[in-house]
Design brief:
Layout (H helix, E strand, L loop, with lengths): L4 H12 L13 E4 L4 H12 L6 E8 L2 E8 L2 H5 L13 E7 L14 E2 L5 E9 L2 H10 L10 H10 L5 H9 L4 E9 L5 E7 L4 E4 L5 E4 L11 E4 L4 E7 L4 E7 L2 E3 L4 E2 L2 H4 L9 H7 L1 H9 L3 E2 L4 E2 L14 E6 L1 H18 L2 E6 H4 L10 E7 L5 H12 L3 E6 L5 H5 L2 E4 L12 H20 L4 H22 L2 H11 L4 E6 L3 H16 L2 E6 L17 E4 L6 H12 L5 E5 L8 E4 L8 H19 L18
Parallel strand pairs: 18-19, 18-20, 20-21, 21-22, 23-24, 23-25, 25-26, 26-27
Antiparallel strand pairs: 1-10, 2-3, 2-4, 5-6, 6-7, 7-8, 8-12, 9-10, 9-11, 11-15, 12-13, 13-14, 16-17
Length: about 625
């Protein structure tokens, strides 16, 4: 059955928008009911969360007896520009907006949300993936249901029609029991205009409110800065029923069919509010924030007077004697783990195993009381990482988390966890979250090392240097103009190679990742010791090599590898703390101990990637096809 979108929304308007207005945005969701100026709330919400990648959008407005729907493939700015600019937008009765990151179905207007049931009465907005949608869709088609999109979301709408009962909430509960995997869903019913139902499973969704009878839903607290005072993080399996009349508004939360209560948290507005200040991009601002971020990570956790560690996260580990630690993460967080495996094995002499979450969940799972699994995630909502954590919990395995969002799923599900204290990170390509998480992991390695009997002189040296680490990073940042000049010399190339040894191998991979994310240029990373095994076949005069070469215990071996490249007259850019006359380009870093060099070399790599991407005029804060928080598989 084909239907006219204007008819659907005009019907919805007549029946329900008399009570309040709603708007949704996705790959994130945002919903609001209250008395504020609709336009200002909407536009601010869009501005706060537009940093998340999306590829299509729609915007619906009403004004007295007039309504208008626009859908577009592309940016929100393209969408809003289509509206009649002469009309007084403050007089609009309702704005509804939504962005989509394509998963099921192509980037087309027909696949853009919201989706409705065949009878046009159920209106659905959905974040996540319904894994069994194909089976459900076939069942519905056999019962003569039709579909106008390729999305999995439309299946939910028609299931609600198929299982309709006398109660809106009971119908949703029945459908909730049938859909599988991950979702954050908001559901409206034309015949029940004073109700709205929200569902959450493995996809972040929070409910918020303030003292002036304003209510919100969002999949990211960032959109709520300066609006809400209280936050409730819904948990997996929760169903929230919001109901209102002219006199009051209220909500009920169900979990596994039973009424439950969720504690509310006070919103930290200052921590969530983000501005670029005078920086050209959020990513550059966040690179420059790293000295303060690292100082914040150490505050109240490290006493530099007597070199003691005080983090609450360590309290449960005093009696533990772990023989093996498995680290689980994805993307940039995975390189934090790779770096940590060097620290924990070199210092504490504990066997460490690094796993990519999306692969680890498909391997045989072994749990042992003397094995600890550690999970790192910027958002604390990374779908692949959460999947492994839940598998571990089913077998009563021990878990530890490092996250940058206090009340995220990983923070709530792990036995104990470290808060990274990086603050709000807007740029999709992670910078300060990487260094803050890395420092958290170094502190954990130092704690376990100290418990197992550290070498006092080396421990004290690391702690002394750690106190000066923010100042060392400032020194690297002071070279930003010089690094930009080097980036200008590299603009002519299309392929790059990053090399390192020991602690610098994960930094080579992370620096290469930053290049790929924001310059859109091809780059490879490899341990320098592997040059003869095959990388030399790829490196030529058209492939500059960025060699991460601090004066650590691997220095002499690295010089030999560097000579192999130089003998073939290939271009080399080095990141190091000494000057050598036969390098083509140099980025200098301060001298420190081996264990802390990664914090300096990674900042140099971040700046090099940033400046090259800026010279190429790329969209640095929102690189194509990428999302800040990967909450679906």
């Amino acid at each position: 059955m084909n239907y006219d979108w204007h008819v659907v929304f005009n019907l919805y308007l007549v029946v329900s928008l008399t009570f309040y207005f709603h708007f949704f945005v996705m790959c994130w969701i945002f919903w609001y009911t209250g008395s504020w100026d609709t336009v200002s709330v909407l536009l601010h919400g869009l501005q706060r969360l537009e940093y998340r990648w999306y590829d299509s959008a729609w915007l619906y407005v009403t004004w007295k007896d007039w309504s208008h729907l626009e859908r577009a493939v592309g940016k929100v700015s393209e969408l809003t520009s289509r509206f009649d600019q002469e009309r007084d937008v403050s007089s609009y009765t309702c704005w509804i907006a939504h962005t989509r990151w394509a998963t099921h179905g192509g980037v087309t207007e027909s696949n853009t949300h919201p989706h409705t049931s065949n009878d046009w009465k159920r209106i659905i907005v959905h974040n996540g993936i319904i894994e069994n949608y194909s089976k459900l869709k076939k069942e519905l088609i056999a019962k003569w249901y039709t579909f106008s999109s390729e999305t999995d979301t439309e299946v939910i709408a028609n299931l609600l029609q198929e299982h309709a009962t006398w109660s809106f909430v009971e119908t949703v509960k029945e459908v909730q029991s049938r859909i599988r995997w991950a979702y954050a869903v908001l559901i409206l019913h034309v015949d029940s205009p004073n109700e709205m139902v929200a569902l959450r499973l493995w996809s972040p969704l929070l409910f918020a409110y303030n003292d002036t009878n304003e209510y919100f839903f969002s999949s990211d607290a960032q959109a709520l800065a300066w609006y809400a005072k209280k936050l409730i993080y819904l948990e997996d399996g929760d169903l929230l029923h919001f109901h209102t009349t002219d006199a009051w508004k209220d909500y009920t939360i169900f979990h596994n069919g039973e009424v439950t209560k969720r504690d509310s948290e006070t919103f930290d507005h200052e921590a969530m509010e983000a501005s670029k200040w005078d920086f050209k991009h959020f990513m550059l601002k966040e690179i420059y924030e790293q000295p303060n971020v690292l100082s914040r990570v150490c505050k109240w956790r490290v006493s530099f007077e007597d070199f003691t560690l005080h983090a609450d996260a360590f309290h449960g580990m005093h009696q533990e004697d772990y023989k093996k630690i498995v680290t689980v993460a994805c993307g940039t967080s995975n390189y934090v783990w790779r770096l940590w495996t060097y620290w924990i094995q070199q210092l504490a002499k504990i066997e460490a195993q690094n796993e990519i979450a999306s692969e680890y969940e498909n391997k045989p799972f072994f749990v042992d009381p003397r094995k600890l699994h550690i999970f790192v995630s910027q958002s604390g909502e990374t779908a692949d990482t959460l999947s492994v954590l839940k598998m571990l919990q089913e077998q009563w395995g021990k878990s530890f988390g490092v996250v940058n969002v206090v009340w995220s799923s990983i923070a709530r599900l792990t036995d104990s966890w470290f808060f990274a204290r990086a603050g709000t990170e807007i740029g999709v390509a992670s910078t300060k979250a990487f260094t803050s998480q890395s420092l958290c992991m170094l502190l954990l390695a130092l704690f376990l090392w100290k418990r197992r009997g550290m070498r006092l002189s080396l421990y004290q040296k690391i702690m002394r240097e750690l106190e000066h680490l923010p100042a060392y990073i400032e020194t690297v940042l002071d070279q930003s103009d010089q690094i930009r000049w080097i980036a200008m010399q590299l603009m002519q190339y299309k392929d790059f190679f990053f090399l390192g040894r020991g602690y610098q191998v994960p930094i080579a991979y992370e620096s290469s990742l930053k290049f790929k994310e924001i310059t859109y240029l091809h780059s490879e990373a490899y341990p320098a010791g592997e040059l003869k095994h095959w990388p030399l076949a790829l490196i030529d005069e058209n492939v500059p090599t960025i060699f991460i070469l601090p004066h650590d215990e691997m220095y002499e071996a690295n010089i030999s590898s560097m000579q192999e490249i130089k003998a073939r007259k290939w271009k080399i850019c080095v990141i190091w703390d000494r000057s050598v006359e036969w390098s083509d380009r140099q980025i200098s870093i301060p001298e420190t101990c081996d264990e802390l060099y990664p914090f300096l070399t990674v900042v140099a790599g971040q700046l090099l990637a940033y400046h090259l991407a800026d010279l190429l005029e790329n969209d640095i804060d929102k690189p194509r096809n990428l999302a800040k928080s990967v909450t679906v598989k």
